[in-house]
Amino acid sequence: LDGAIAELTALEFAIVRIFLQQKHRAFNREQIMQAAWPVNVHVAERTIDSHVRNIRAHFAKLGCESVIDTVHGIGFRLGDCRMKT
Q1: pLDDT at 44 over 90
Q2: SS3 at position 12
Q3: For residue 84, how many C-alpha atoms fall within 13 Å in the half-sphere facing its CB?
Q4: Which residue in 8, 23, 63, 73 is deepest, having the highest Cβ count within 10 Å?
Q5: Residues 39, 84: contact at Cβ < 8 Å?
Q6: Backbone region of residue 21 per phi and psi (left: phi > 0; alpha: psi in -120 to 50; beta: other values)
Q7: pLDDT given at position 85
Q8: pTM of the full predicted structure?
């Protein structure tokens, strides 16, 4: 982000990659789980929320206020990464 590197775990990176591949699409938690976790691994839906919160925190440290937006009733999508002023 503007030359700075966000230090993400492999799983966090996999989630960000999902959003980058389809920038304007909102994904529900099940779709994120299927895309980011290996086959036959089950995680609770709220685990996605924890990873999204961690990703947001990593990018907030770099000045990005909205790397992932919540789409109420659907899930999440890539944000526009408004920078702090």
Answers
A1: no
A2: helix
A3: 8
A4: 8
A5: no
A6: alpha
A7: 47
A8: 0.86
